[in-house]
Amino acid sequence: MSPIVLLIGGFLLLIALRVPIAFALGIASLVTILDLGLSPLTVANQMFSSINSFPLLAVPFFLFLGRLMNDSGITDRLLAVAGATVGSIRGGLGHINVAVSMMFASISGSAAADTASVGAIIIPAMKKGGYPAPFAVALTACSSTLGMIIPPSIIMVLYGAFGNVSIGALFLGGIVPGLMIGLGQMLYTYIVAVRIGLEPEKRAPLGQIAFSVLRALPALSLPIIILGGIIGGIFTATEAAAVAVVVGLFLALFVYRNVTFRDMPAMLAESVVSYTLPLFCVATAGVMGWLVAYLNISEAVAGFILTVTENPIGIFMMIVGCLLIIGTVLSPVTAVVIFLPIIQHIGTVAGFDQVHLGLIVVLSLTVGLVTPPYGISLLIASQIGEVSAIRAFAAVLPLLAIALGVIMLGILFPDLFLYLPKTFLPESF
After folding, report:
1. What is the pLDDT of residues 357-393, one digit of tens each?
2. Burial of 5 (0-12, 13-18, 19+ CB in 10 A)
3. Distances (CA, A) of 157 to 240, 324, 362
4. φ/ψ (deg, to 5) at 40
5. Rounded to whole angstroms, how far apart are CA atoms 397 and 115?
6. Are residues 94 and 127 in the same domain?
7. pTM score, two decimals?
8. Angle separating helix axes 92-108 and 206-220, nearest 10 degrees
9. pLDDT tens profile 268-310
């Protein structure tokens, strides 16, 4: 049997048998390595090599920072800011939903954390306010994906670490598409509010707006510290994450005072568990990624695509199409580790800029967070809103069209995404 068929077929068979993805990756890779006559120690060596990366240390820092800010009551403060600034627009609760996700994204970098923390508050409020339950669930799930796009983004850290691409450039490149998708979601929310006859709320007084912004301002300074330090060459992404955690600890313990020193052990333990589970998946995916390179699968895939089309836009469209399918069954983390060698080889052959390619890949994989059967953000939001995933997914489709439209604009007009990184980090190109 062909090693490629054994590797891919074995993995798909194990997934069909409901074996956890991390174990499916490891078992399929081990069987293929034994079939090739290679040492079983190759598995251990490649697993260690996959996680032996300094940039990867940024991930647990960002996970802990998101948990710290959520427990310190920052979610409530962000909701107050969003309510005071955009709550008076027709469809106010929906706009608050999107706005707070955009602000939360700039702190946590995690879509699941955004869905769980913001959704638990905003979904019941939207249902009570007259919004259809499937729409409330769909909007919450889709707006939470901004946590994977607007910096700091955990998936961008992984992409940069494994693909040797500037994490700072990816962070800067994620700002414009993140804002575009967020504003597109708010426009759609306005249309829905008009269609179902929701009236706008009373505009908040200027004093209330200023007060709410002032209360949240210390936490909102964290993205400035992270991006400013990276752009200024003061920190690496990992160092910036560590500094942000120190600042976050100061805010949580001494400014907001909703967290005490007694809470730290439990918060640290939960953050470690939250990190180790995907890290094990990264390790086993690294073995499969190594096999993909060892078996020259990248060259075969690139050769096939080039026989279909040599048009750069056509190649990009094929990459996006494949990633949309992959995202329905694999998490963005797993997909990046496994398929990055193939994607980057195709990009090199086609002459794509690696930062631009990385942004398109990240944007495409975030769609998988709201598409069944994986769709972790959609599943969490559906449970909160007590709506079946099928009904919620039907409501997601117009919001998916917005995200795909932004991806298409990024393919057609690369400088739309690359203007900020080229301006502030030109050495990354």
Report:
1. 999 999 999 998 898 877 888 888 998 898 888 889 9
2. exposed
3. 12, 20, 11
4. -60, -25
5. 18
6. yes
7. 0.86
8. 20
9. 888 788 778 778 888 888 898 888 888 888 888 888 888 888 8
| Residue 386 region by backbone torsions, left for phi larger than 0, else alpha for psi between -120 and 50, else beta | left
Structure tokens at 288: 């499969």
- In the chain, the amino acid numbered 318 is M
Q: In angstroms, rounded to a whole number, what is the distance separating the alpha carbons of residues 131 and 268?
A: 37
Residue 103 host element (H or E): helix 92-108
* Token pair 């210390």: residue: 218
Report the b/e string of 97-107 with b at 16+ CB within 10 A.
bbbbbbbbbbb
Q: How many domains does the chain have?
A: 2
Question: Which residue range forms the structural domain that includes residue 8?
Answer: 1-38
Query: Which spans in 251-331 are helix H?
Result: 264-294, 297-308, 312-326
In this structure, the answer to whether residues 254 and 137 fall within a common structural domain is yes
> Is residue 270 helix, strand or coil?
helix
Any domain includes 274: yes
Same-domain pairing of 21 and 158: no
**Whether residues 6 and 137 fall in one domain:** no
Q: What is the CA radius of gyration of the chain?
A: 22
Are the beta carbons of 371 and 393 closer than 8 angstroms? yes
119 vs 383: CA distance, rounded Å: 10
- Do 318 and 365 reside in the same domain of the chain? yes
Contacts of 34 (CB under 8 A, 6+ apart): 40
User: Is residue 44 domain-resident?
Assistant: no
For the stretch 139-151, pLDDT in tens is: 999 998 998 899 8
User: CA 2 to CA 116: how far, in whole Å?
Assistant: 43
Same domain, residue pair 141 and 215: yes
Other beta carbons within 10 Å of 427: 8
In degrees, to the nearest 5, what angle opens at C-alpha 259 toward C-alphas 94 and 114?
Answer: 25
Cα gap 358→422, rounded to integer Å: 14
Give me the amino acid identity at 84.
Answer: A
- The letter for the amino acid at 330 is L
DSSP 72-95: TTHHHHHHHHHHHHHTTSTTHHHH
The C-alpha angle 153, 157, 160, rounded to 5 degrees, equals: 130
